[in-house]
Design brief:
This protein has helices at about 10-15, 20-30, 55-65, 195-205, and strands at about 35-40, 50-55, 65-70, 85-90, 95, 105, 110-115, 120-125, 145-155, 160-165, 180, 185-190. The protein is α+β, with helices and mostly antiparallel strands. The strands form 2 sheets. Strands 6-5-10-9-1-12-11 form a 7-stranded mixed sheet, covered by helices on one side. It has a 5-stranded antiparallel sheet with strand order 2-8-7-4-3, with no helix packed on it. A hairpin with a 5-residue loop joins strand 5 and strand 6.
Length: about 230
């Protein structure tokens, strides 16, 4: 069930929810064909951010964000720590699809690469947005059961939506999901045409952006296990 503010009864959520067929049609209408799915952890929220992947490389190629250096790392206890080294930030043109199928721009959304772990987290997705998903607010998590984040790009913007329901409502079924080659925490499905998952991967591999981190053109982002 798509989330809503207000009465948290199951009947109210069901009455106001955006049906899955309408939601998927909304992604299709906006030009999204490859839809990523993440079952959110209990601590995925606006304060803790949302873990997406161990590296920016795959997401940077797919989501076509604007890369910049972020704040300098102060970590000194992790194996990959390098105090003073800047985090890498991928700024995204992110738009939330609301429960009534409107667009709500989230202008401060970004992916931050924390190289010392290593991990990439989605951040800033509520800031500056007039109608963001209430279920991503840390202060509102008690109103919701399990939550699912959906997102995909049309090549210019990234569109997202959160499916959530009241406590005890369970997890809705999303047919056709398969593990994503981009990240082990993501699933994906394809919308609208008969293009296979393998063809989407081949297309992505044909358009590879330069490495998103490093002092030289040869250096790439570390993967889990790198020191």
């Amino acid at each position: 069930m798509s989330e809503q503010r207000g009465d948290t009864s199951r009947e109210e959520f069901a009455r106001r929810a955006l049906p899955k067929t309408v939601l998927f049609d909304g992604f299709r209408r906006r030009g999204v064909r490859r839809l990523f799915v993440k079952h959110l952890a209990p601590n995925d929220n606006d304060k803790n951010q949302i873990y997406i992947a161990p590296s920016l490389d795959g997401m940077a190629n797919l989501l076509r964000g604007r890369l910049s250096e972020g704040s300098e790392s102060t970590s000194s206890t992790r194996a990959g720590s390098s105090p003073g080294r800047p985090k890498m930030v991928l700024h995204l043109d992110w738009v939330w699809i609301t429960a009534d199928d409107r667009d709500a721009t989230a202008p401060n959304t970004k992916l931050i690469y924390y190289f010392q772990y290593p991990e990439v987290r989605l951040s800033g997705f509520l800031s500056g947005c007039t109608d963001p998903p209430d279920s991503l607010r840390r202060t509102q998590l008690g109103r919701y059961d399990r939550r699912i984040l959906l997102f995909g790009t049309n090549g210019e913007c990234v569109f997202g939506h959160v499916i959530a329901g009241p406590p005890g409502s369970g997890i809705p079924d999303i047919p056709g999901l398969s593990p994503s080659p981009v990240s082990t925490v993501l699933l994906e499905t394809h919308l609208g045409d008969n293009t296979s998952r393998e063809e989407f991967v081949r297309r992505d591999l044909k358009t590879v952006l330069p490495p998103v981190s490093g002092e030289t053109n040869q250096e790439r982002l570390p993967v889990p296990g790198d020191e």
